[in-house]
Design goal:
Helix 1 runs parallel beside helix 6. The chain has seven helices and nine strands; from the N terminus they run E-H-E-E-E-E-H-E-H-E-H-H-E-E-H-H. By secondary structure, it is α/β, with parallel strands linked by helices. 33% of the residues lie in helices and 19% in strands.
Length: 190
């Protein structure tokens, strides 16, 4: 069974990934791990505490990673080992999915240099923060979700669309389109 890893860091936007992980675990029957630079707990944007059960260095040693999901959060520095893991997974053509500001990590790893992507992180926001823009803006597509090969990116407000794109990529409903369509209708029908 392939493992799905979620990179968590201080102030990450946990609401953007809960639907995806709920269905990945319970419908897709995948093994999931939260991953950090170390084992220290982090506090999410919602105020909940999360403790990684895997470090980035340990993830580098795993043979059966099926994908990496990166939620949004603040623009922050990126450690070398995360860049190396992302490059490794990209070369192995494993799913790389990032939402909101999460694509910053893919951008700094060079993954977005040759792919279309989207993000909630605007040029204006980068200027406000007075930080270097990590994104190759020539590849930016102003859509809710963009899938280019094994790389999925989304704007933060599109967390439902993001989840369903991941479901499709991982084929967790295994052709049971009615179940997936009913879930989407149940979530989105007002």
């Amino acid at each position: 069974m392939g493992k799905i890893i979620c990179f968590i860091s201080e102030d990450f936007a946990d609401f953007e990934i809960t639907l995806a992980f709920h269905k990945i675990k319970h419908i897709g029957k995948k093994e999931i791990f939260s991953m950090g630079y170390n084992y220290e707990s982090v506090i999410s944007e919602s105020g909940l505490y999360y403790k990684p059960n895997l470090t980035v260095n340990e993830a580098m040693e795993l043979e059966d990673i099926e994908g990496l999901i990166i939620p949004g959060g603040p623009i922050r520095n990126q450690q070398k080992e995360l860049t190396e893991l992302i490059i490794k997974l990209d070369q192995e053509e494993k799913m790389l999915a990032a939402i909101c500001h999460g694509p910053q990590y893919l951008a700094r790893s060079g993954v977005l240099n040759r792919r279309n992507f989207t993000t909630s992180c605007s040029i204006e926001r980068i200027k406000e923060l007075d930080v270097e823009d990590p994104f190759p803006r020539e590849n930016f597509v102003d859509q809710r979700v963009v899938r280019d090969e094994h790389v999925i990116t989304a704007k933060g407000r599109a967390f439902v669309d993001f989840s369903f794109e991941i479901f499709d990529y991982l084929d967790i409903y295994q052709g049971e389109h009615r179940d997936k369509e009913q879930l989407f209708k149940d979530i989105m029908d007002r």
